[in-house]
Amino acid sequence: MFSKEEAAQLRKLFWTSFGKSFPRKWLLYNTKVKGFAFKFVADRKKAMVCLDIEHPEEIANELLFDQMLSLKTLLENEIPEVIYDNSYELESGKQIHRIYVPFEQKFSIYNKNTWRDCYEFFVDEMSKFELFFYEYEDFIKQAI
After folding, report:
1. Of the candidates 29, 63, 128, 141, which lies 20 to 30 Å from 4 by C-alpha distance?
2. First to last CA, the chain
3. Is 3 inside a domain boundary?
4. Beta 83-89 vs 47-53: how paired, if at all?
């Protein structure tokens, strides 16, 4: 088991190593759609690439998720493993709409031996998500 400081250092090292290994400007929060952001997630048990929809206005939130549902078949053609979750619960207890691709291999942010495969997964899957967004950006933005 790691101390709190050691765990924090490992998490920081994980993310800085990712940035150095794959130096690239990712879309992430720069979608220009409020409450619509791409994220990399990695913790002690899992890793995933996500599209989180958490607009502060509930109606806009639902409209954005519905717009993404209308594109589900198209997204599944690009990313067959994609999961649509209408009510994903974050560790904080907050419920959001999350569309994500889980990393299926054994992973822990505290095990450096699992990092490289996760990094490659991140690059492959986020690139697909970004391309999809750019392809359908205008349609997605019509939701709100």
Report:
1. 29
2. 46
3. no
4. unpaired
Residues 6+ apart with CB under 8 A from 22: 119, 122, 123
Per DSSP, 90 falls in state P
Dump pLDDT digits (tens) for 79-137: 999 999 999 999 999 999 999 999 999 999 999 999 999 999 999 999 999 999 999 99
pTM over 0.70: yes
Provide DSSP, 1-55.
---HHHHHHHHHHHHHHHHHHS-----TTTTSSTTEEEEEEE-SS-EEEEEEE--
**What is the number of other CB atoms lying within 10 angstroms of the CB of residue 38?**
20
Tokens of 92: 């904080």
Does any domain span residue 119?
yes
Classify residue 100 as exposed, middle or buried by CB count within 10 Å of its CB (0-12, 13-18, 19+): buried
Burial class (CB in 10 A: 0-12, 13-18, 19+), 36: buried
Domain residues for the domain of 64 are 49-144
- Count of domains observed in the chain: 1
